[in-house]
Design a protein that fits this description.
alpha/beta, 13-stranded parallel beta sheet, 6-stranded parallel beta sheet, 3 helices, globular
């Protein structure tokens, strides 16, 4: 009876070590699944503003646009910006538009609008989807594809900022889809989007029907709109305003195409191994190996 009990000791020790290992690894390592790739804008990428018809307007001509501006198929006469407002090139389909910075390049604009349509379709068909409430203010989201429980997304200042958590992965991609027949995106006055833990504005995309960004809001991401985009007084955008068919309306805004920092190769986003998790897993594996060896030696000694 005593020998049987002694022989069970290493087995019990081994099971205990395995339990510890599984607990440590299970708590600290998230399930790895395929990461979303970014939405490829191709020739639309250099454009801070791309509009369809009737044009691009800016009340008071006080906005600053850091990137290219283009209007198509409407004529250049619909570009209501001055050259001094744009750090980049203003493109038109004809000889109209602000001088001396305006460049006539219809084929480039056709290509950019086609690539905008492709990007809009790409963002609209991404899966798997996670459905979130209409109100995004006061929430924290990690990388993924999100649709709304209604026909719109809203961010209200009183609810708090929308926080996008990159989980220390600069390649984290955030895609928001709203139905084409909905109101799209409504960003309240004074509201904000905050990027955390490596999330980048270049990897945030809003595929909507229309977008309205309120007074003094701090907005992040590329808007891929089927129709119009309106940005109200004093709002700032780190991203792009790309409207397939409608107008882009500004008022004393700053629009900046975001730079995208290089990603560090590793596990896919939303399935990353944290440094602490790797260390704990390694320590646990070492303990398991040593424990198994000592258990076996103990067993051999006392089973003779």
């Amino acid at each position: 009876m005593q020998k049987t009990s002694i022989r069970l000791i290493p087995v019990i020790a081994l099971l205990a070590i395995l339990s510890i290992l599984m607990t440590l690894v299970g708590v600290n390592i998230r399930t790895v699944h395929a990461a979303q790739s970014t939405v490829n804008l191709q020739t639309a990428s250099p454009f801070a503003i791309l509009s369809g018809t009737p044009g691009i307007t800016d009340a008071g001509n006080a906005s600053t646009i850091k990137g290219n501006v283009g209007l198509s198929p409407a004529t250049g006469a619909g570009i209501g910006l001055n050259c001094s407002q744009v750090t980049g090139t203003i493109y038109s389909v004809d000889g109209a538009g602000p001088l001396p910075c305006r460049v006539t390049d219809g084929p480039l604009l056709v290509a950019a609008k086609n690539h905008l349509t492709a990007a809009y379709t790409d963002a609209a068909t991404r899966t798997p989807l996670t459905t979130v409430p209409t109100e995004l203010g006061g929430t924290t989201l990690t990388a993924g594809v999100y649709d709304s429980s209604s026909t719109t997304f809203g961010i209200t200042a009183g609810a708090g900022p929308l926080r996008l958590d990159g989980q220390n992965d600069p390649s984290s991609v955030f895609i928001f889809q709203a139905p084409f027949n909905g109101t799209g995106l409504t960003v309240g006055s004074g509201s904000s989007i905050v990027l955390e833990n490596g999330a980048q504005a270049c990897n945030v995309f809003w595929r909507v029907d229309t977008a309205n960004i309120g007074t003094g809001a701090t907005f992040v991401g590329t808007v891929l709109a089927l129709n119009s985009i309106t940005v109200q007084n004093g709002a700032t955008v780190s991203g792009r305003l790309l409207a397939r068919n409608g107008a882009v309306t500004l008022e004393n805004n700053t629009i900046t195409i975001p730079a995208c920092a290089a990603s560090v190769p590793g596990l896919p986003n939303s399935g990353e191994l944290k440094g602490q998790s790797v260390l704990l897993a390694a320590v646990s594996l070492f303990v398991l190996t040593v424990g198994s060896f000592l258990g076996y030696a103990f067993y051999k000694k006392h089973s003779a």
